Amino acid sequence: MNKLFIIGLPRTGTTSISVALLEHFKVAHTAYTKRAFELADVVSDCPCFSDYQQLDALFPESKFVYLQRPLDQWLPSIQMLLNKMQPRLNGETYVTPILKRSFGQTFDLNNVDTSLDEAHLTTCYQRHEQAVMDYFHRRDNLLSIDISQADSLPQLLDFLGLPHSGDEQFPHLNIGKRVDNWKEYKHPNKVNANAAGKEGCKFF
Questions:
Q1: Domain harbouring 120, CATH code
Q2: I need a surface site. Which of 2, 31, 49, 156 has the fewest CB within 10 A?
């Protein structure tokens, strides 16, 4: 395996899976520089959910995990997140261009007047899911899980060839209106999303 990319949409459990994998790998929850991708074994969230095809080409032999979540739970959660992020996504305060592009493409933020509308977000979720399934059709390097299911972490560990007892559970983080548990979580295997290398903060 080259890298592991978590390509579920925001609010599907990307923080929980990132924390669960810190005991095994160097993990970046979001990555905005070339160096961050080089340092991390696992990268989740933005921009992986929008750039998985390019990452597949850049990092051959990598594995991918798509995170499912029931729409009735995901919709209010993503509405809350997008509402909090609107000042940055609308250009009122600074946000990294990669994040703005990734969210803009995935949620059609520049093409709709009601980006928080349930019908619109449902379409975005279903379109993303279908695109992922079509792209990885007949391939064996994608795992699709719902982290709320009891056997989801053992499934992931099997997919990665890691030993386990069979009863491991994902931590439940960023519950409700929480959005920043990753920043608060301390671990030596965390990789800075904006890590700079010889080329500074250059992206690909």
A1: 3.40.50.300
A2: 2
